[in-house]
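Lecture notes, continued. The same structure-token format from the folding unit now serves as the input rather than the output. Read the line below as a description of shape only.
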């Protein structure tokens, strides 16, 4: 009797890889804990590198006015970002630790999923410390510190988002098979491309939108179908990586995000 063939589940990044992928997007394996917090040595940035950061910072700050959520703005104020120079990961780690108990770990680039989730579980955000080059100013497929710092870190000062992200890492270490794809989708439609709708209106919070030149306008435009937050709808929704997103999900609050994820993950048996 032949054994039943196990259904192969392919994630969005795996599909992209089948078509050829930038070598910088191939995950690296960490064999030990990366430098964290005070262990991080800040590199000497050239004028050109600081200029790229400054250009991106000033452009995105202008685009985000009236479009990004208040929680993100509060995070930027706490971190005291400036368009003059690339921030020190060591200093940003100190701000995060005081706000929500998170720290920053300096990583060499995109890291392997198990490494990534282990760090999240331990409330360590993995960040690069190099910035994209001028010829990739509008878009880079590879990680860089502008996306990591400007896109991701401000919301980690919010207690509900910080708790959600830690629980996400914890759940991802337990997930198997199709559950791993569900979590990949959950991450995409919240952490990277999430929207929030509250008394102020619809706003952006996902890092993939916040740090993108084209997605800011597009995400709040009429061409996008916005669906109310529902973990089961999110985990059933496929997506493609490298184009403007046609479907997005909107939460009502970060409390809803934290509580909704906890409920779903416990039902799936991947969170205690």
């Amino acid at each position: 009797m032949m054994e039943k063939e196990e259904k192969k589940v392919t994630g969005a990044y795996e599909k992209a890889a089948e078509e050829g992928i930038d070598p910088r997007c191939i995950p690296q394996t960490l064999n030990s804990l990366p430098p964290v917090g005070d262990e991080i040595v800040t590199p000497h940035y050239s004028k050109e590198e600081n200029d790229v950061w400054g250009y991106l910072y000033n452009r995105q700050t202008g685009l985000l006015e009236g479009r990004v959520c208040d929680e993100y703005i509060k995070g930027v104020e706490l971190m005291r970002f400036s368009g003059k120079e690339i921030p020190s990961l060591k200093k940003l780690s100190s701000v995060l630790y005081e706000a929500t108990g998170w720290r920053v770990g300096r990583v060499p680039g995109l890291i392997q999923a198990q490494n990534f989730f282990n760090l999240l579980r331990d409330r360590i955000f993995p960040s690069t410390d190099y910035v994209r080059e001028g010829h990739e100013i509008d878009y880079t497929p590879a990680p860089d510190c502008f996306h990591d710092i400007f896109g991701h870190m401000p919301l980690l000062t919010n207690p509900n988002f910080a708790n959600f992200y830690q629980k996400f890492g914890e759940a991802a270490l337990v997930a198997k098979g199709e559950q791993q794809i569900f979590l990949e989708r959950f991450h995409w439609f919240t952490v990277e491309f999430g929207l929030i709708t509250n008394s102020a209106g619809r706003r952006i919070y996902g890092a993939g939108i916040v740090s993108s030149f084209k997605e800011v306008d597009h995400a709040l435009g009429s061409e996008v179908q916005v669906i109310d937050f529902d973990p089961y709808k999110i985990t059933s929704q496929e997506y493609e990586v490298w184009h403007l997103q046609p479907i997005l999900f909107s939460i009502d609050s970060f409390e809803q995000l934290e509580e909704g994820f906890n409920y779903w993950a416990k039902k799936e048996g991947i969170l205690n």
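Point for the exam: DSSP finds twelve helices and six strands in the chain.
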